[in-house]
Write a structure and sequence with these properties.
Number of helices: 3
Shape: flat
Strand content: under 5%
Structural class: mainly alpha
Largest sheet: none
Number of strands: 0
Distance between the termini: 72 Å
Radius of gyration: 30 Å
């Protein structure tokens, strides 16, 4: 039985070592010089299309968030006042 345990441990170690080698080779393959990275970033930045800003109008979605924020704020204040009341504070 011990032999199978050692074979299993050796197999796990072999898989881990293979993963390390593959990861190292991938990093070396993808290694870019700082100039290459800068050039790629400039290309991506130029490719981005910036949409025209639209005027914001407070709609029903914003109203819901305001309602939720007020509701949660009220719950927090309500709990704090109850704790004070439980301790005999006002």
């Amino acid at each position: 039985m011990r032999l199978w345990k050692w074979i299993g441990v050796a197999g796990v170690a072999g898989v881990a070592a293979t993963g390390v080698v593959v990861a190292r080779n991938e990093r070396q393959r993808r290694a870019y010089s700082p100039d290459d990275v800068r050039a790629r970033l400039h290309e991506r930045a130029e490719a981005i299309e910036i949409p025209e800003p639209t005027p914001t109008v407070e709609g029903p979605e914003i109203g819901r968030w305001v309602w939720l924020r007020r509701r949660l704020r009220g719950l927090v204040h309500h709990r704090a006042s109850r704790r004070k009341a439980d301790r005999g504070l006002r």
